[in-house]
């Protein structure tokens, strides 16, 4: 995905807040770069780069990512016309040159994503549309790094359970999926689709934010309280298998991690016939996801 950068706030405050603003741009760049998304800045950015490089501290912030951004510049040399203000909704005032120029470039390139700085106060709607003749372009305006993080987590929406696993593994540092997880979830894709792929993604988010800290020992909460929080957050239960079940059917919960056979007891119940097993491995400081398919045998 490509995100066109809204420079309006940068230009407006370039004489007062340049260092702070470029630190925020660097955070936005990092947010996108770790996902292999692109931050695109106009090649005619109205900033004197010599001013930046004269400030050593500012140059240290800018230099590492500026060369990468330059590869994905928005080319203003290719001909384009400024769009008619009457075609923009919500309305833009006619003195907002940089905003009008950016929207015109979006229309030229059929680009639907803009990222703005968190304190942007003149281009602050979440969505704009440009209607010209029989064509309409809807543009999403994401304001600030926090909203950008949230947008990137859920977009593009996963199309199957495997993509949910891949996205969760990329997003959450302490959640890893075993080969068995990917193999077993395929047969339950239709059931999980009914449950909701984004809802499943939020299950792994809860594992990362609620369950992982408990197993790592970073919280004083009791396990029962963590289970309660997990239930409140996801509307799902996770529980431990009984010793009786593990003695009789534990082998069904085996998974290979780093060349070793590991048994998983904790499992999340999704729908009637989907169970996702997991285990915290201290040596790797992460939660591994194992069997993610049918309801396994129990001793009951």
Automatic annotation (TrEMBL):
Source species, domain of life: Bacteria
Protein name (Swiss-Prot/TrEMBL): Uncharacterized protein
UniProt organism field: Clostridium perfringens
Taxonomic classification: Bacteria, Bacillati, Bacillota, Clostridia, Eubacteriales
